[in-house]
Amino acid sequence: MTKDFDVIIAGGGLVGLITAAAVAVYSNQRARILVVDRNSEQDAGKKTINGWTCGDAVSKRSIDYVAKHLGIHYGSPELEHPVKGVLVFSPDHKTSVLFDGEGYLLNRKILPQRQIRDAKKLGVSFQFNVSLDRLLVEDGAVIGVVGRYLTDKSVFKLGAKMIIDATGSASKLRTSLSINSKIQREIDRDDVEATGRYIYKFSQEGNDRSYFDPDYCLIHLDQYLAPGGYSWTFPKGKNKANIGLGVQKSALARRNQRYGLNDNLQSLIDAYVTQNRTIQRCVLSDDADDEGNSKGSWQVPVRRQNDCMVTNGYAVIGDAAWMPRPIDAGGMGPGLYASVILGKTVAGALETNDMSEKSLWPYNVEYMKTYGYQMASFQVLRAYLQTITNSEINYGMKHFLTQDDIADITERKHPKFQRTRFFNPMMWFRIMKASKLASGLRDTAKKSETLIQHNLDYPETPRGFPEWQKGLMKKMENATSA
Fold first, then answer.
1. Is the pTM higher than 0.85?
2. Is the same domain home to 245 and 330?
């Protein structure tokens, strides 16, 4: 088949557009790159009919990583509001932990327009209003894509040396991949959270900063209000916020059955907004930059990234590779790191005209050792936290977290929960008072350390993958068993 382009990127969202720019930068703008998006150019990056639905928060370190490696520097208006960090609050609002450092609230509607301009300057081409349905394969390799123009339903068909899939967690391309590959096609239902949010303007009453803080993103843990997930209030100004909530569907079903309720995602979000003591008289944002984006829901994968993200002529990235962090569902940070790494890998493969699994394998290795090595451990921590009660969360955050644990969490590392260990005589009474919780935290920390080391030993070539994955699955099964 004719190779119409060197690289076709399916999906013109944040990750797809950064990946396009990265391939262009690392290939010294010699690569022929096409981004295909189902939206119009005006609505590029739109996730659902409800808009550019997202929590909108991204760390400064992720933005700086893109600036350092690609020379792309974001600013106002796409960086809508700066924050000093992310504070995680216990259900009783009495204990908080700084979960991350400086960052920004993005305007996800404006950002794609800035990214398109950047990509066009680098020679990237675009095709909008096209929905991609399947991959073209030949001789065990991906060689193109097939879809349809949404304007007239005619066939869209192009060939390329490399297809990059950035079409989201429910990717048709990944699930229908028909060649023999190490890429996992399907995700477990319990590893997907239903999430929704408003962008609200409001009046402030009082100054309880555990409910709203213009300088910090707030995450609220509450197994009754957000079973299996969490709720958030992220500032987009002094009187504007992204307010939302995510739940695990099976946890919500168990919660409803236990209390004889019939709540759904929307009713829980509304309850969360209503109980906020500081945010009052909320109205959907009428800012022009929020038009068509002030309310929406979406699905977020919350497991470790796909164990393998490449095959011959094809790679997955972003939500299509299940990259959002399991502990907080943040997807932009890992996606930005992955975009730079994949762009560099693909440019190198184009240079040697080798788009084989082996040639693309460094993407797996570098992403795992740079960012992804923690994700299996956070998946285990998430699974454990979903089994404990609000009172146990209150007690654990108050008594079992040390400054070292908080520092580890801030650095996106797994906390060691040293206070739960019996060699600390000062803690014996508190440990005995919550012995089951202490034991669970100790056990989770120990298993997570093993998972982290296993992931740092990710195989350098495809040959070592089957044995590595076999070991991973055994460790994951051991870590998540009762």
1. yes
2. no
